Amino acid sequence: MNEPQSGPDFSKYILDRMKQLEERNLALREQKDRAEGEKRLIENQKLKYEREARKLRSELERLRVGPMIVGTVVEVLDESRVIVKSSTGPRLVVSVSQFIEEELRPGVQVGLNQQTFAVMCVLPSPRDPMVFGMEVEEVPDVTFASIGGLDSQIAELREIVELPLKRPELFHAVGIEPPKGVLLYGPPGTGKTLLAKAVANSTEATFLRVVGSEFVQKYIGEGARLVRELFDLAKSRAPAIIFIDELDAIGSRRIDGATSGDREVQRTLMQLLAEMDGFDPRGEVKIIGATNRPDMLDPALLRPGRFDRAIYVPLPNREGRYAILLIHTKGMSLGPDVDLRSIADLTENASGADLKAIVTEAGMSAIREERTQVLQRDFERAIAKVLQAERHGAGDELDLPNYA
């Protein structure tokens, strides 16, 4: 192609050519920037894939390693050697892996290599799952306002359990130690467990509940271990409250000539006594015990320092029965003829559980007749039915119908 050499056409050609070259240069720069961005993205992806590859290789190596033996450190000789007792039986002097950062001390559980028995890792301290199940996570819906006829017992219980947790400065100012434990005792059905539920509802402390019979285990030492782990858990979650229901199942009086099962229960009791007031301080851990057989309890369990206060939960009197009836009939549709005070007079010697059963039975009587209101005669029928069953249960044989 013939290009002009002079004149205005040549100048125009030069300007057009420069513009084309500038546009070309700009396009190349954009291509260069895109290429560098893609390069950085690819390099980042490469690093990511390399990290994933290293992680997968380490996981593969970990899976290739055989299972380790569980052992317990008996004595630390130096930084690289310890004496361990393996689960297979013998005591061994073994080396310690250089990758272990935790401090090794006697009693710590470790994982041992199957071939060399070298210490490869430190294991967490074992704790029975049953102990973790004793922690109450869902707060009960029972409050002190829903308990009738026990005003003095409620005031005393809150003074012993709640006050040291909510206002400890009062005890520091006076210069005394707050009570450590309280024993609730009285006839069945009077509201001992209900009081413990109200404590769990009203306090922000960790609440652990256990039935005394749960400490009775088949093998020697298992019950004592459960007691020890329960108190260890309470100390780690302090402030905490431990509620032991049916305390007489584990705290019965020690006697001579006991069987092997009785001796195991006594060993568990001795561990409980040591945890309640032993060599190690208990810290901010309160204990509430409940029993309807205080005459069976061991005297060592009742001394101050373990249970500082014993609260008797009696059968409700007339005013107490009336207060309980008011609580249980609060949401019921009552007829105009219902007189709760007369019902309280008719239910002498009835417990709180009996009164709740009477209210429920009266409601069932109204449902049987397809009524939406509960009348006075429903309560009278329920009283006759429930209290008659109580009298039969006291010793007479129930005359049950024969459906054969």
UniProtKB/TrEMBL annotation:
Domain AAA+ ATPase: start-end pairs = 178-317
Coiled-coil-forming residues are 18-66
Sorted alphabetically, which InterPro entries does this protein's record hold?
26S_Proteasome_ATPase, AAA+_ATPase, AAA_lid_3, ATPase_AAA_core, ATPase_AAA_CS, NA-bd_OB-fold, Nucleotidase_PAN, P-loop_NTPase
Keywords assigned by UniProt?
Answer: ATP-binding, Chaperone, Coiled coil, Cytoplasm, Hydrolase, Nucleotide-binding, Proteasome
Q: What is its main location?
A: cytoplasm
Pfam families according to UniProt:
AAA, AAA_lid_3, Prot_ATP_ID_OB_C
Chain residues that bind ATP: G189, T190, G191, K192, T193, L194, H328
BP-aspect Gene Ontology terms: proteasomal protein catabolic process; protein unfolding
Protein localization: Cytoplasm
A molecular function annotated in GO for this UniProt entry is: ATP binding
Name any GO cellular component annotation.
Answer: cytoplasm
Q: What role does it play?
A: ATPase which is responsible for recognizing, binding, unfolding and translocation of substrate proteins into the archaeal 20S proteasome core particle. Is essential for opening the gate of the 20S proteasome via an interaction with its C-terminus, thereby allowing substrate entry and access to the site of proteolysis. Thus, the C-termini of the proteasomal ATPase function like a 'key in a lock' to induce gate opening and therefore regulate proteolysis.
How is this protein organized at the quaternary level? Homohexamer. The hexameric complex has a two-ring architecture resembling a top hat that caps the 20S proteasome core at one or both ends. Upon ATP-binding, the C-terminus of PAN interacts with the alpha-rings of the proteasome core by binding to the intersubunit pockets.
- PANTHER family in the cross-refs: 26S PROTEASOME REGULATORY SUBUNIT (PTHR23073)
Q: What is known of its domains?
A: Consists of three main regions, an N-terminal coiled-coil domain that may assist in substrate recognition, an interdomain involved in PAN hexamerization, and a C-terminal ATPase domain of the AAA type.
Q: Which family does it belong to?
A: Belongs to the AAA ATPase family.
- Name of this protein: Proteasome-activating nucleotidase
